[in-house]
Design brief:
Alpha-Beta Plaits, 2 domains, 11 helices, 14 strands, six-stranded mixed sheet
Length: 305
C-alpha cells in the first residue's frame, strides 16, 4: 500500500497535507495523532470512499482514484463507531455482511464458524448485537470485516471505549492476522496502544511529523529525561522552564518530566539547584525513558505555526 503526496481540502481547510508513506505486507502500521489531525480522512481516501484533492495512492496494487470500487472489494474496514445492526443477532449480522461480500453457502458456514470460535463469539451467536459489551461488539465488527478474507484491513480507532484487557486481546488478534500476511492500518490517538504497531507515522494538522518504529520515534526525543517529584509542582515547572539547559518540562500525573540538555553532566544537581533556593520541596529525581507521548509532544513543539 502506497500513499504519495495525498492532499484533501474541504473549502479553505486542508485536512490532509501532502502525506506520503508505504505499508508492507503483514505489517501493523499505526496512524498516531490527536483527534482532528487527518487520520480518518486519510483512511477514507485509501478505502476509495473519498477522492483526494491532490496526490495518489495504491492499495493492493489498485489505484484509489481510478478504481475506487475495486479497492473496496479487497479491503476490510472497521469504523470508530459501532456500525453493525444492533437489532440483529451476531449470526444475522454475519449473514448480512457475508451476502454483501458474496460469501454464502458452505463457504459462509465455514468462515463464520471459524471466526466466531477465533474471536470468542460462538457462545454469543444468538444474542442481539446491541446487547453485547463494547469489547464483544468490537470483535463482531472485526469478524464481519474479515469474512471475505481481505489482504488489507483498515481500522479507524477501533478500541475507543474498550477496557484495557479487551484492548490487549484485540491487539493479540491483530498480531495473528499480521503474521498470516494481512496488512493492517490502524488509527489511534492512544499513545500506549501505538506501541503494538510495527511502524508509526505521527500526524499533526494533516502533516507527517515523523515515521519509524516506536523505538526509533522515542529515540528522537532530545536530551536526558528526568522524573522529578517536587511540591508545589506548578511553580517548580515555571522555574525549570526558564532555564536554558532545560529543553522541555511538563506535568505527567503527579510528577514533572524534565528534558535536560545532553551537555549537563549532573541533571539532578541542576534541578535541585534551581528549585531548592525557591523553597520548593524536592523529592525523588530519576532518569526515565521517553514514551511516544514525549516523542509526539517534542515533534509538535518544534512545528512552526
Amino acid at each position: 500500500m502506497i500513499a504519495e503526496e495525498l492532499v484533501k481540502q474541504f473549502g479553505d481547510f486542508t485536512a490532509v497535507d501532502h502525506l506520503s508513506f508505504e505499508i508492507q505486507r503483514g505489517e501493523i502500521f499505526g496512524f498516531l495523532g490527536p483527534n482532528g489531525s487527518g487520520k480518518s480522512t486519510t483512511i477514507r481516501m485509501l478505502c476509495g470512499l473519498l477522492l483526494p484533492t491532490e496526490g495518489s495512492g495504491r492499495v493492493g496494487g489498485v489505484d484509489i482514484v481510478a478504481e475506487p470500487e475495486r479497492v473496496r472489494r479487497q479491503i476490510g474496514y472497521m469504523s470508530q463507531e459501532f456500525s453493525l445492526y444492533r437489532d440483529l443477532s451476531v449470526q444475522e449480522n454475519l449473514e448480512f455482511y457475508g451476502g454483501a461480500y458474496g460469501v454464502v453457502g458452505r463457504l459462509f458456514a465455514e468462515r463464520s464458524s471459524s471466526l466466531l470460535e477465533r474471536l470468542d463469539l460462538a457462545a454469543e451467536r444468538d444474542r442481539l448485537a446491541g446487547t453485547l459489551s463494547t469489547g464483544l461488539q468490537q470483535r463482531l465488527a472485526l469478524a464481519c470485516a474479515l469474512l471475505h478474507q481481505p489482504p488489507i484491513l483498515f481500522l479507524d480507532e477501533p478500541t475507543s471505549g474498550v477496557d484495557p484487557v479487551s484492548r490487549r486481546g484485540f491487539f493479540d488478534l491483530l498480531g495473528e492476522l499480521a503474521r498470516s500476511g494481512v496488512s493492517i492500518l490502524i488509527t489511534t490517538h492512544v499513545m500506549d496502544e501505538a506501541e503494538y504497531c510495527n511502524r508509526l507515522v505521527l500526524i499533526h494538522r494533516g502533516r507527517r511529523m515523523a515515521l519509524g518504529t516506536p523505538g526509533e520515534l522515542k529515540a528522537q526525543v532530545p536530551g536526558r529525561l528526568m522524573q522529578v517529584r517536587a511540591e508545589p509542582s506548578m511553580p517548580a515547572l515555571d522555574l525549570l522552564a526558564q532555564r536554558p539547559e532545560v529543553l522541555d518540562v511538563s506535568l505527567f500525573g503527579t510528577a514533572l518530566h524534565v528534558a535536560v540538555a545532553d551537555a549537563v553532566s549532573e541533571p539532578a544537581e541542576l534541578i535541585r539547584s534551581v528549585l531548592a533556593p525557591a523553597g520548593i520541596e524536592v523529592g525523588e529525581i530519576r532518569a526515565v525513558r521517553p514514551t511516544l507521548e514525549h516523542a509526539f509532544l517534542s515533534l509538535v513543539g518544534e512545528e512552526p505555526e
